[in-house]
Amino acid sequence: MERTHRNKVQRHFRRSLNGKRIVCLDIPDDYGFMQPELVALLRARMARHLPTIAPDE
Known about the structure:
By secondary structure, the chain is mainly α. The protein is 44% helix and 0% strand. The protein is flat, with a radius of gyration of 13 Å. The relative contact order is 0.15.
């Protein structure tokens, strides 16, 4: 999700979100499904939000 996507989700679902946090990983939509570079980037960016995920598994 890029920041523009996050902003659209926040605008359209403001009531449903009810103060919930949306994490924007700033990953462009330039990767194929399960592309190894994308998986590595997701692991690295998500590690701080989901500590049970090791960045280099």
